Model the fold of this input.
Amino acid sequence: MPDVLRLILRIVGARSLNSIGRAMINATVGWELYERTHSTLVIGAVGAVQVLPVIALFVPAGALVDRSDRRNLSAIAATVTGLIGVGLGIASFFDAPVPVYLGLLVTLGCMTVLHAPASSSLIPLIVPRDALVRTNRINSSFQETAQIGGPALAGLALIFFQYYVIYAFVALTGITAGLLYRTLPEPRGVPPDTNAVAARKDWRVGLRFIFNSPLLLPALTLDMFAVLFAGVTQLLPVIATDVLGVGPLGYGVLRASQSIGAVGMATFGGRLTNWKRPGRVLLIVVALFGAVTIAFGLSRSFPLSVFLLVAMGALDNISVVIRLTLEQMVVPDRIRGRVSAVHYVFIGMSNELGGAESGVAAYFLGTIPAIVAGGAVAIAVVGFVAVKWRALVTMPPLEELQPAHE
Done:
């Protein structure tokens, strides 16, 4: 196996183990707390408490990443995620009150806001530039495989095991990911910025870069609002229980379906030539994502719902590959940590805040109207972005992009 491919598989494997642990936590906590409370507001709280650290800590997290060894930070964050699995297992074993779970999820959010920029900005510092598109395809495929394995394993395990057994497995994935990060080579390129005073003073550089970018800002805007309003993952316990009438195994299938579509698209996409107009492709797939979300909200058939989730995952995969490669191509190495931290506010906040929005909207509007309205909002955002940022529409192939000035 070529050395570059080994390197890609090691870093992608570490990130994917961390992802599978987080996916299992969210799937299991969501099901356990809904079974105990039957409250969509509690479902929303599971997302809300994980987004709070993203909002509060993205500034110091980005500065810390840019002045530290990103490999070690990734290892620490992954290991602590495993320890959170231990805490959740203890909480479940002793039937702890809901606030205990939410407190542990706050800690998980703190680790995620550190792990996301550290591991993401590490990739272009250890992987050759000409291998980045390939890396992102492999990374996307592995990440989505983790998203399949996490919910599917959780759904299957819910039939045979107590909740604390699932959380114990999460502990193993996090600790293993931490060990794997430590086997990676030292990052190349510019040395970490050890001037903490300067880093604090210049924390806005990541925010400024994104808001001044005619390509990165609209791409992140599309992803943020699509996931924020059109995401349905957090409501799947409600859909499985109250709409489709399927048990925990059916819930696991629903949770895994989007990831199955994403892996299929990642595999198929590797055989396609690179997009000549990736910006146009991004706009189209997000609009289709919104339309499929509307159809999912109206579905009363389990097989049709699974099919629609698979389609949503395939569309999302295209968006992920374009967005990640775009960031890695246009961001200078010196500020990758701070840009990645702000990037995660767009993406991480939209996932977790989207879960909170879904729970609250379902409480006030009803589950089905909330899903349908979310899909419609995603389509409207596509129209707004296409009109406001013409540079995205005319963006050249990703491999032709170069780092922009800070």
